[in-house]
Design a protein that fits this description.
single chain; 287 residues; alpha/beta; Rossmann fold; 2 domains; eight-stranded mixed β-sheet; 17% strand; membrane
Length: 287
């Protein structure tokens, strides 16, 4: 009897083993098929990611090309103002430097250009300031966008150890960046805001001299924000509204999109602006 049971068990074991062996190829094929599906899904996923990244890169490059292509170029007055004479020596090496002749400048002014505006467009304004005996530097911004090079003035300050007092300023968005730089730099004694205002009230308690200049016909600036910004500036800030001036004529680059027509000449607006900045520079260190 025991022999029969053992034989029966052995037969069952053999049958089970044979069944497993028969199923093994089927299981293996199914497993291989699942692996292929997973690999295919991973391939498609990676392919979609690469395609998406390529699309983003193309969009980014197109945006840069469009940005550069629509940048505001300097006018003839600006180009003429870049020629050295017996009053001012001008060097262009990325940044644009105006050095007065016949005088050892001890005070300097650094200008941050407005967004999408070529740095050369501010040459007429900066030349006028330099003719009064001050070192002046217009910063050349990467892609004409001051936000991308907010601390570029720091290098200028380090390179000119003979300048004892610095004023930084900017036009429009450049003014926002300039005010931020001034907050974090003890070498800066004054700030010039041209059709601009700070993004916060950090300047308020620092004791730096500030002048805020804008035009009554400015079609770009948000006047509500300009008025509110007075709460963010020092109490002794000098405010200069130029009657009939617009946003664009702080530089020489044509009429900016959205701006109003000015009621005064570009030369008149630049004269009033430069005189206001020179007055600030004269008062630096006299408190």
């Amino acid at each position: 009897m025991a022999e029969k049971v053992e034989k029966k068990y052995t037969n069952l074991e053999d049958t089970f083993s044979i069944t497993m062996e028969l199923q093994r190829p089927l299981l293996k094929d199914e497993d291989d098929e699942n692996k292929e599906k997973i690999k295919h899904r991973e391939y498609r996923f990676k392919k979609n990611i690469k395609f998406g990244l390529c699309v983003l890169v193309v969009i980014f490059l197109m945006g840069i090309i469009n940005w550069i292509g629509t940048a505001y170029k300097p006018g003839q007055l600006a180009l003429d103002s870049l020629v050295s004479d017996d009053k001012v020596e001008i060097t262009v090496d990325g940044n644009i430097t105006f050095t007065p002749k016949g005088i050892e400048a001890t005070k300097g002014f650094i200008l941050y250009p407005g967004a999408k505006v070529d740095a050369k467009a501010y040459a007429p304004l900066c030349r006028k300031i330099a003719e009064n005996g001050y070192k002046v530097v217009i910063l050349d911004m990467y892609l004409n966008f001051a936000m991308l090079s907010p601390n570029k003035a720091e290098k200028i300050i380090k390179e000119h150890e003979n300048i004892k007092s610095w004023v930084v300023g900017g036009h429009s968005l450049g003014g926002v960046v300039a005010s931020r730089f001034a907050v974090n730099n003890t070498n800066v004694d004054g700030v010039v805001l041209l059709a601009s205002y700070p993004s916060n009230d950090d300047l308020k308690q620092l004791g730096k001299d500030v002048v805020s200049i804008w035009g009554s016909k400015d079609g770009v600036i948000n006047f509500a924000n300009l008025i509110e910004s007075k709460e963010k500036l020092p109490k002794d800030t000098t405010y200069v509204e130029i009657e009939g001036a617009n946003h664009s004529q702080f530089g020489d680059y044509g009429k900016q999109k959205g701006d109003y027509d000015a009621l005064i000449s570009e030369e008149k607006q630049l004269e009033i602006t430069s005189n206001s900045i020179v007055k600030l520079l004269e008062n630096i260190g006299n408190k």
